[in-house]
Write a structure and sequence with these properties.
Blueprint: H1 5-62, H2 66-79, H3 83-119, H4 124-131, H5 134-149, H6 153-207, H7 217-248, H8 251-264, H9 268-287, H10 293-316, H11 318-326, H12 334-349, H13 353-359, H14 363-388, H15 390-416, H16 423-446, H17 452-477, H18 482-494
Helix pairs in contact: 1-4, 1-5, 1-6, 1-7, 1-8, 1-9, 1-18, 2-3, 2-5, 2-7, 3-4, 3-5, 3-7, 4-6, 5-6, 7-14, 8-12, 8-15, 9-10, 10-12, 10-16, 10-17, 12-15, 13-14, 13-15, 14-15, 16-17
Length: 495
Amino acid sequence: MGISDKDKGTIMKGAFVVFVAIFLGKFLMYLTKGYLARYLGPTDYGLFALSLTIFTIIVTFSNLGINEGIVRFVASYVSKKDWARVKGSLYSGINIVLPFSILMSVVVFIFAGNISTFFEKDITIYLKIFSLAIPFFVTYRVFHGFLRGLKRMKQMSMMNNVYSNFMILVFSFIGVIYYGLVGAVSGFVIGYILRFFISVFYSMDVIRKKNRPKLITKELIKFSWPLTIVVLIWSVAGYLDTMMLGYFRSSAEVGVYNVSYLVSGLLTIIYSAFVAIYYPLGSEYFSKKRDIKPLYKQVTKWMFSVAYPSFLILLFFSSTVIRIFFGSEYLTGYISLSILSFAFFFSILVGPCAETLNVLGKPKWNTLNVLVMVFIDFILNYYLIQSYGILGCAIATTIAMVVLNLMGLIEVWYLNKINPFDFDFLKAGIFGFVLMYGFYYSMMYLKTFLDRFVYDILKIFGFGVFMVLFLGFSIKIGILDVDFFKNRVFNKFIK
């Protein structure tokens, strides 16, 4: 049985809503980091990126996996209308993470100098400032899980993506102008603290219920503690490159690499938007014993159609993108940007493998895959960073990510014979590449005749034309169903 128009509509409508929230949040965060990168320069931005990475890993560990347990228990108790245990789930989570997060905050504050010495970077003051946000950030994650369990997706999405990042943007802008890097870090901390209070506000209607909370501390710890290791592994996998680059190379190289990673990571917006809807719908398919293959293939086609032209722009014009948005100081990272763009695009090309493994009841396979990825990433980074700097780091990260996604693709094929590819992918791929190749060399020819400003404007206009032509070709060969989108999604959205 193929995928129905109703389910297509669910994906597109849901993905559109999630896409808007994620896009706004990502846009605000990218605007913040882009501005900081330009204002601070590679060296100070590298110190900022390294400090933020260390902070992120610490708060991930400090959460102890409790936020995921909160989602599970709250959703279960809400369905049973057991509001005493719903409230008790929240209280139990806070009772567990708050004392531990305060302890971690004190430890980081005291030993910030030792951490700074280990990396041979002067980041002591920045780690001390970040340490003040640890209890607020960790406790916020509990409230975030609580709202997810209550299925308040609109509030949660706006709070997590838009409100939070807007506050960080405002306070970081003001802070960096008056106090430099210290002000930028303080802006993030203020944003995290205010986000915590917003999450409390959104939860007050349940907190104010007169029923006495029934704590589930033992059950929550029993369910959540194994997740701590898994979540920590995923966190390390995401930041291992920055950590090792910060250990072996200069702060300036860390800054340049993080700009390349930041730009290439824009492709993840597309993935996140569609997967947020695919995951619950795929779970429903599996529970009803429906064939998940058509759903997987459709989602992969849509993601490919949107991501491929963006990937080709980053592949061919990486130096232009960096120069226009971040300045010539970061141009040494343009090759790294092209390489990392391939890594993120490949994750989209193979489809939602990791989510499908969870749907098929194999989450441990995901954990094993990530462990393999971390091992490969560590070994390659250890050797390549020392010899080739940020280029070696980009190559190591890309190889590790490709291996991770290939394992996932092989596993979903083994479990359910899922293969998202067909001849349409090849036709669209060749068309897009040939079109971009011709545009690239046309611009190289015109470069000697045009002023830089006119040249950049012409390239940006060309990017838009290229994307329109590629989407038109995708519609023509059937990857994008324009009639369905117009009748079932766009018209409903307009109404």
